[in-house]
Write a structure and sequence with these properties.
The chain has 153 residues and is of the alpha/beta class. The protein has 4 helices and 6 strands; from the N terminus they run E-H-E-H-E-H-E-H-E-E. The protein has a 6-stranded mixed beta sheet.
């Protein structure tokens, strides 16, 4: 299984008049989302499920791919790492799952998968962390295939 974590691109700051869920991407954020989407499209597996937080900024990030996606409330702002892994069906899903979500959840998932415990790791805005799960000599392993940031593409 591949689990691809994509943090939403740069978004407007929240204000008293702008609820967090309604924050939209900035012009820079739209550019970041499109840069990463172009890069991802060339590499994404055919058998792919895309799960997106219902927040406006995550939906805008996902729309840059031009592929159908599912809104998933369990990966909204403040979601638990365990909930994200459960809805993604990690590590047993029969294909790849792309999750477009938020900090600190994505960083906590990355820490859990690589270090065995949740921790507050940082995932940059617009960045992708790509994990694979495999079995070698009877041992299940999590492999970090790569970390990619739009400013490096």
């Amino acid at each position: 299984m591949d689990l691809i974590l994509w943090r939403h691109a740069e978004a407007e700051e929240g204000t008293a008049k702008l609820p967090d869920a309604k924050r939209r991407l900035t012009a820079r954020g739209e550019k970041q989302a499109h840069q990463m989407a172009r890069w991802l499209k060339e590499r994404l597996p055919k058998k792919l499920r895309i799960l997106v937080s219902p927040a406006e900024r995550t939906q805008m990030t996902a729309h840059a791919l031009g592929l159908p996606f599912e809104l998933e409330r369990k990966i909204s702002v403040g979601a638990d790492a365990a909930d994200l892994l459960a809805v993604a069906e990690w590590p047993d899903h029969g294909g790849a799952v792309l999750v477009v979500g938020h900090q600190p959840t994505l960083g906590r998932v990355a820490a859990l998968l690589l270090g065995g415990a949740e921790d507050d790791w940082t995932v940059k805005k617009g960045a992708v962390w790509w994990f694979s799960n495999r079995t070698r000599e009877g041992e299940t392993q999590t492999v970090l295939r790569g970390v990619f940031s739009p400013d490096l593409l």
